[in-house]
């Protein structure tokens, strides 16, 4: 662990990230104060009380926050929040929990970001590392926070982390040994002044502090990544993956279920028959394989991990078959590009459940697939007006629903034997649900009730 100048920390937001930072701070013997403008859920409140951490809810005590040496901002708190602005005006350093936790470990880190595929790539990479005998802490934007993992730093030999743009916005010295950028498509533009360039810059922060002896893994087929790479100073060794070209070093797809990994000074590896289907999952698999090879995990262990990896919950997850109708839970698809993957991967007629909190979406990219494959759309949200305006007249039936029970029953009534009911919302979940997991779990529950 490193010595830092921090003796007193203030944390804004009491979700997984903020609570993890508080617990790590307490573990390190720091003076910890946590503040949340809303109500702290009992799950996290009990953790804070058990650790005897001072916290407040329903308000921000600015004097106490500004008395800290550093302010740690949870990813759900926007930079425009008044309390964040006041901290910055007062000259306080505002960092993310990822940045904070990284100060207290020297273990190798694989960090994965991107608009789509980061959860699958993180889960798969972690699975390969564990299969390869590496004691691995897997978390970040999924599962446990990085900070809470670091409390048990002695138990781990490496970390595999999913890192969101919101977390990267508060990173300055975070330098993962392997940084993976899966792709960049418009998302979360409501948090970036509706400027795509701001969101792109946020994603590239994953490599900003990397050194020459570290690795930056990227998709050579992603036009945004390739176009913007020259605009950023990238010191790390660049290793691409591609389904279209064979790079000198990196990974490339030979056919749908086979790819090759070439790393300098290492034996070439061929991966066949990996479980995850679709080109998007081939990309995820190639990125994970590069990280595993860089970490010198044995080939047979990597191949074994690919053969038994079951995929990620809420990502194109089969939720049941009722009356010959397949129900697919893709609740994690919170942006247009994720839905594009989902619609493109299903060859049968689709009843599509979509909606939630729109993040400034442009749905035009979906039009061809919707016209070709979607027989009905079930809108699910408090306000479905944008979806209704966008797609009315494009499909035979479009329905307006305001609960998961109503959406599932409506979709079932519109589907026929051989069809697929696809929950792939393209939107955030916070209007009707706690998060995308809650939305996906409710979908699976109501499917079981049919």
TrEMBL record:
Catalytic activity: UDP-N-acetyl-alpha-D-muramoyl-L-alanine + D-glutamate + ATP = UDP-N-acetyl-alpha-D-muramoyl-L-alanyl-D-glutamate + ADP + phosphate + H(+)
Transmembrane segments: none
InterPro entries registered for this protein in UniProt: Mur-like_cat_sf, Mur_ligase_C, Mur_ligase_C_dom_sf, Mur_ligase_cen, MurD
Gene3D superfamilies (alphabetical): Mur ligase, C-terminal domain (3.90.190.20), Mur-like, catalytic domain (3.40.1190.10), NAD(P)-binding Rossmann-like Domain (3.40.50.720)
Gene Ontology MF annotations: ATP binding; UDP-N-acetylmuramoylalanine-D-glutamate ligase activity
Mur ligase central domain span: 112-292
Coiled-coil region: none
Domain Mur ligase C-terminal residues, every copy: 314-427
Localisation per UniProt entry: Cytoplasm
Keywords associated with the record: ATP-binding, Cell cycle, Cell division, Cell shape, Cell wall biogenesis/degradation, Cytoplasm, Ligase, Nucleotide-binding, Peptidoglycan synthesis
Pathway(s) of this molecule: Cell wall biogenesis; peptidoglycan biosynthesis
Pfam families associated with the record: Mur_ligase_C, Mur_ligase_M, MurD-like_N
EC number: 6.3.2.9
GO cellular component terms attached to this protein's record: cytoplasm
Binding site for ATP: 114-120
Matching NCBIfam families: murD
Function, as annotated: Cell wall formation. Catalyzes the addition of glutamate to the nucleotide precursor UDP-N-acetylmuramoyl-L-alanine (UMA).
Full protein name: UDP-N-acetylmuramoylalanine--D-glutamate ligase
Species this protein is from: Thermaurantimonas aggregans
